[in-house]
Amino acid sequence: MNKLLFTGASGFLGYNILPLLYKEYDVVHTLGLTLKDDIKINLAKEVPPINTHYDIVLHACGKAHVVPKTEEEKQAFYDVNYQGTINLCKGLEKVGAPKALVFISTVAVYGCEFGELITEEHPLNGDTPYAKSKIMAERFLIEWCKANNVVLSILRPSLLAGINPPGNLGDMIRGIKKGFYLNIAGGKVQKSILMADDIANLIPLVKDKGGVYNVCDTDQPSFGQLSKLIAQQLGKRSPISIPYWMAKSLALVGDVLGNRFPINSQRFNKLTKSLTFSNQKAVHELGWTPLKVLENLKIQ
């Protein structure tokens, strides 16, 4: 009997893949903060009372998509992403370590603001609380899994796509809905994206093998392609494009006005510089065929 424990299942990823996991595994239990979770607990603060031995643990519980403004907010990343991982493993030790653990990390660990087809060999230069806490969690799990004879898979997803996505893709959808979204210089910038469903598809491929993998679509969709697709699904006109110089000028205004303005220099750089990652290690070693984002993305 295949038993799987899924941490962080109440978030975006869980919303998109739980139905797939229920079909694939005999028993699926969730661990998190909501009343719907089978094990309701705050991993950042407590060791979970786990009473079942699991074959596979999918550890997706984490803090992301927030820019910390205070020391307390910075510490929250380490509490959830790092200490939460330690607490999870302490709970698992009580019933015996699983055969396999799949950890959802992030491409943010590389610390890259731009670049093309970045591989797993890139140094872990991420210096944000989010990136640092994920790096610490990865390193802890490598040692813990080695000591407990657990097959560890570290998946580093790029931007995730699916129903109700967070982050920049969610911002794009909301902007197009309101008619505020604009492409810059034709929207030619490319970003690596992964369909959330592919996390579920990857588990059977990695559970016996383990390893560290960037996971994203082989195709690298542009902002222009994504915004056109989203606009079509929403019944909206495709967003217009403004010249580079105009967007740069607006960003400088945003630096002065702050959060009241939709763009600043930091956001401008993200919208005008491509950032893509190579998935070739996962494709070749696992025999994985990623879902094509432009063919599978459904936002409603």
What does this structure look like?
It contains 10 helices and 13 strands. The protein has 300 residues and is α/β, with parallel strands linked by helices. The strands form 4 sheets. A 7-stranded parallel beta sheet has the order 3-2-1-4-5-7-11, with helices on both faces. Helix 2 (71-93) packs parallel to helix 3 and helix 7 packs antiparallel against helix 8. The two termini are 34 Å apart.
C-alpha-based Rg, rounded: 20 Å
Helix and strand element order = EHEEEHEEHEEHEEHEHEHHEHH
Please bin the fraction of helical residues. Answer: 40-55%
**Average of per-residue pLDDT values:** 92
- Main beta sheet strand tally, sense and closure: 7 strands, parallel
How would you sum up the global shape?
globular
Structural class: alpha/beta
Task: Work out the number of β strands.
Answer: 13
DSSP helical segment count: 10
- Name the beta content range: 15-25%
- Report the end-to-end length measured between terminal Cα atoms: 34 Å
Low-pLDDT parts are none
Sequence of strands across the biggest β-sheet: 3-2-1-4-5-7-11
Set out the fold topology.
Elements: E1 3-7, H1 12-24, E2 27-32, E3 39-40, E4 56-59, H2 71-93, E5 100-104, E6 115-118, H3 129-147, E7 151-157, E8 159-161, H4 167-178, E9 183-184, E10 193-195, H5 197-206, E11 211-215, H6 223-234, E12 241-242, H7 244-257, H8 265-272, E13 275-277, H9 280-286, H10 293-296
Parallel strand pairs: 1-2, 1-4, 2-3, 4-5, 5-7, 6-13, 7-11, 8-10, 9-12
Helix pairs in contact: 2-3, 4-6, 7-8
